[in-house]
């Protein structure tokens, strides 16, 4: 019996011993202070803020919760755009007379470096650790100064920005195309409109050309809080007086982008508008914020990177009273670069006004330097409205307009029609197939090569039995040039014309589509004949049309277009060298002078006494089948063959029953009467 009792007692003692060993083994192994601090730094560098919090002393955890701790680190680092955080333990120089460290306290120094939106931040600091009596484990004695040494308990880290002034866009003479101005904004405070709120909203809506629904929608936006100034629309000085003293109505002056030429240069300048969420997601790493403006079209979009500049940024620690305790990093404001173009504002406006709402486009060149003097698209929109506040009514009006004012026509490709005959003439002469003296005998107004063409035929406007090359240009004979192209053959014609820059991007920063001579090569004689007088699949922009005429002025070379004046402009102004021989250029030039000088010439309407005007008319037919009725686009290109200072190309859509190309000639002549003798 006694033996059994001792066996039981022994068994229980053994069980207690085993259990004690297991409990001892399950306890976390105590780390040294150095190991704890190294673990803390590793978690910090990885952004493992919960793990960091677990290493804090009991006293530190009493002062702030895990949620507060995590949020503080996260919000500070996110707010300053932290990246490339690196923390490493450092060693302090040994003191001359070392003082023994207390057994329950330890201090380690570290170096921290990180990148922010305001540049790099670096600092050295010390972290204190204590061995807690309750657990005998080392813990971090945390304070805000571990984040940044100057920080105290109630301090905050904030980012202060100063907006960079956007660069301005000027014309060749320093006149503004897109400049920084100011605007008076009429705003409302919904909670201060008083008993006449409805009446006030109606008055404001009527004054600004908005609906009451549009005004109320702005007042009820999600961001609006009591007392907020809610911008409704822009006004002038008269608006301030009209609403003086009305409850809830106030005014603020706002810096704003303005476009002095308005519609006259809308598609050239483009416009800026507030950045949207999708754009911000793509550009936030490039210094953009939710309140930034972004170039959305034209030169504003093209030169966005240089125009924007660099916003100034300061990262500061502020105390509970809002006073700055320390500046951690700063980046100076850098104004955007100005862009000076080769455009002449007066000429740009004058050309646009000649359109008087007609749909069409134009380009003007200095044909020797290649400087672009004007790029016009009509009709257009007012880019100022995109900046000051575009109403839904105006947007719908533009979108519903059959003339499509939002379409940029000077970058659009069109069938050039008969103004392309100059290229055909130059190619034939240069190849030795055509000759100034060769006379073609053509009978009637219709011609077909042979029975293989079936019902297809080429027409002309004037029944003259015998014509040479000059006659054909003066009187714009389709049949003559169709026969010239067939005499060349498709390879000679195609290769010669292709040298004028077809199939290639125009060598300038503004995006233009590539002109087309033939989509997949010239397939047959019918296409070859049509291409000779600018129909078929020939497609060109008005600017490329102008460039195709520059070899006539520049001894056979196609000039390179220039839109921006800068020190980096290439010294060589030639885009395509030796496209035709100089003697060919002279023959064609004289023929174009005769086209204007001859009283019966199709371009005689451009004749100006005292000037040596050269020009070529063109009418491009837009129809699917021969013989059917269709629209016609009218073209005219002209230059003074003596001065060689202005090369003007104008195209007007739908000129049928309005005088054809003569309708365009009359407009172009008015431009030359005013600007034809200007030296650019």
Automatic annotation (TrEMBL):
Protein name stated in the entry: Penicillin-binding transpeptidase domain-containing protein
The upper taxonomy is:
Bacteria, Bacillati, Bacillota, Bacilli, Bacillales
Pfam families reported for this sequence:
MecA_N, PBP_dimer, Transpeptidase
Residues in Penicillin-binding protein dimerisation domain copies: 162-327
InterPro entries named in the record? Beta-lactam/transpept, Beta-lactam/transpept-like, MecA_N, NTF2-like_dom_sf, PBP_dimer, PBP_dimer_sf, PCN-bd_Tpept
According to its UniProt entry, this protein's organism is Paenibacillus baimaensis
Which residue intervals define the domain NTF2-like N-terminal transpeptidase in the entry? Answer: 34-155
Identify its protein family: Belongs to the transpeptidase family.
The Penicillin-binding protein transpeptidase domain is annotated at 360-671
Sorted alphabetically, which keywords does the UniProt record give? Answer: Membrane
Localization, UniProt: Membrane
């Amino acid at each position: 019996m006694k033996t059994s009792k001792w066996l039981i007692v022994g068994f229980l003692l053994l069980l207690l011993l085993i259990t004690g060993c297991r409990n001892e083994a399950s306890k976390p192994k105590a780390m040294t202070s150095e190991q704890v601090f190294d673990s803390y730094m590793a978690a910090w560098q990885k952004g493992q803020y919960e793990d960091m919090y677990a290493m804090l002393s009991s006293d530190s955890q009493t002062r702030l919760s895990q949620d507060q701790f995590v949020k503080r680190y996260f919000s500070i680092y996110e707010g300053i755009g932290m990246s490339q955080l690196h923390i490493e333990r450092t060693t302090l120089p040994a003191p001359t007379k070392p003082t023994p460290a207390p057994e329950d306290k330890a201090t380690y120094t570290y170096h921290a470096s990180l990148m922010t939106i305001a540049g790099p931040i670096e600092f050295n600091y010390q972290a204190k650790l204590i061995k807690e009596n309750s657990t005998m484990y080392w813990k971090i004695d945390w304070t805000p100064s571990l984040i940044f040494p100057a920080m105290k308990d109630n301090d905050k880290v904030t980012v202060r920005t100063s907006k960079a002034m956007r660069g301005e866009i000027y014309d060749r003479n320093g006149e503004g195309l897109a400049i920084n101005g100011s605007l008076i904004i009429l705003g409302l405070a919904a909670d201060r409109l008083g008993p006449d709120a409805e009446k006030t909203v109606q008055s404001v809506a009527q004054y600004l050309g908005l609906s009451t629904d549009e005004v109320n929608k702005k007042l009820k936006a999600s961001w609006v809080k009591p007392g907020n100034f809610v911008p409704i629309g822009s006004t002038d000085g008269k608006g301030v007086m009209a609403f003086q003293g009305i409850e809830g109505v106030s005014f603020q002056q706002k810096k704003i982008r303005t476009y002095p030429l308005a519609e006259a240069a809308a598609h050239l300048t483009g416009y800026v508008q507030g950045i949207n969420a999708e754009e911000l997601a793509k550009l936030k790493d490039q210094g953009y914020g939710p309140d930034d403006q972004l170039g959305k079209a034209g030169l504003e979009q093209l030169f966005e990177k240089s125009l924007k500049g660099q916003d100034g940024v300061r990262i500061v620690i502020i105390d509970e009273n809002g006073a700055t305790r320390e500046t951690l990093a700063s980046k100076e404001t850098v104004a955007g670069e100005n862009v000076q173009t080769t455009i002449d504002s007066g000429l740009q406006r004058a050309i646009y006004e000649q359109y008087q709402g007609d749909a069409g486009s134009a380009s003007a060149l200095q044909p020797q330097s290649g400087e672009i003097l004007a790029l016009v698209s009509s009709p257009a929109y007012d880019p100022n409205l995109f900046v000051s506040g575009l109403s839904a009514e105006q947007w719908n009006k533009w979108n519903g307009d059959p003339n499509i004012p939002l379409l940029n026509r000077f970058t659009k490709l069109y069938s050039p029609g008969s103004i392309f005959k100059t290229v055909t003439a130059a190619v034939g002469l240069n190849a030795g197939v055509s000759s100034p003296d060769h006379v073609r005998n053509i009978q009637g107004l219709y011609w077909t090569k042979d029975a293989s063409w079936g019902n297809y035929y080429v027409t002309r406007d004037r029944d003259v039995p015998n014509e040479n090359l000059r006659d054909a240009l003066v009187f714009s004979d389709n049949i003559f040039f169709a026969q010239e192209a067939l005499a060349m053959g498709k390879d000679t014609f195609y290769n010669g014309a292709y040298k004028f820059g077809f199939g290639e991007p125009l060598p300038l920063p503004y995006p233009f589509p590539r002109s087309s001579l033939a989509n997949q090569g010239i397939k047959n004689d019918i296409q070859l004949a049509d291409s000779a007088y600018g129909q078929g699949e020939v497609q060109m922009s008005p600017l490329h049309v102008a460039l195709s005429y520059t070899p006539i002025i520049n001894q056979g070379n196609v000039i390179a277009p220039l839109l921006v004046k800068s020190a980096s402009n290439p010294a060589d102004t030639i885009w395509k060298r030796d496209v035709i021989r100089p003697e060919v250029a002279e023959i064609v030039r004289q023929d174009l002078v005769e086209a204007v000088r001859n009283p019966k010439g199709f371009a005689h309407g451009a004749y100006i006494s005292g000037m040596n005007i050269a020009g070529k008319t063109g009418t491009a037919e837009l129809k699917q089948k021969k013989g059917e009725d269709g629209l016609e686009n009218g073209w005219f290109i002209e230059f003074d063959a003596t001065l060689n200072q202005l090369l003007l190309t104008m195209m007007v859509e739908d000129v049928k029953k309005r005088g054809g190309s003569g309708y365009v000639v009359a407009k172009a002549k008015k431009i030359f009467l005013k600007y034809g003798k200007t030296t650019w």
